[in-house]
Amino acid sequence: MYTRKFADYNTAMGEIIMSEETTLEVLLSNEFGLNIPEQFSNISPEDWAKYAFENNLEYAITFYKDQKPYATVSNTTLSISIKYYEEKEGGLKVYLSTNFMKGHIDDGFVPYDNNKIFLSQIDRIGGLGQTILFYSQKKKNNVFSEEFTETNGNVELVEQFGTADLSKHWFDTPKDYLDYEALLDYQNLFNELPSVPA
After folding, report:
1. How many Cβ atoms from other residues are within 10 Å of residue 95's Cβ?
2. How many CB atoms lie within 10 A of CB 87?
């Protein structure tokens, strides 16, 4: 269903998908600075993704659907984020993003002990935009929504706090460096979540 490249999206370069080689250079530079270890001097983008997955380091994969960029997964030490694209105004625009936390970050990073990731944020981009944050800490199931609305030409920020059943926000951790198809299907994913407004 999807094809893929080990490449990342870049707004600074003109809202494009970078090449695999450029993406790898950026990732290695971010990880090691100017002192890239010899073992990584000739590593392929896919081999870096495998290594990064096994060692909880950052890598990116862009998935293509019908030969067009569909989404980019960025797997980092703390989280997995997914950006979804549409072609618009001569460029590639992000219209939706999701973020899955891998653990708690209260007193340093502590991975969840249930081999799960937690859907913690949804950003709807376009129009005026909306951000929904989900917090599931101990017995709290807090939801925070931030949305810009326009009435009679006036734009205002509407913030809402509440609680919801967040038990369905837990998902299996990807089994390997390519295992993202279930997370990419955001429409099916959102249909399962009682806390996500239409």
Report:
1. 15
2. 11
In-domain check, residue 198: no
Q: How many Cα neighbours within 13 Å face the side chain of 35?
A: 0
Mean pLDDT by groups of 10 residues along the chain of 198 residues: 91 77 94 93 96 96 93 96 87 88 84 88 77 64 73 77 80 95 89 61
Let me know if residue 196 belongs to a domain: no
pTM flag (> 0.90):
no
Domain boundaries, position 97: 3-191
Q: What DSSP state is assigned to residue 174?
A: P
- Asked, for residue 119, whether it belongs to a domain, the answer is yes
Q: Domain tally for the chain?
A: 1
- How many angstroms separate the CA atoms of 195 and 119, rounded? 11
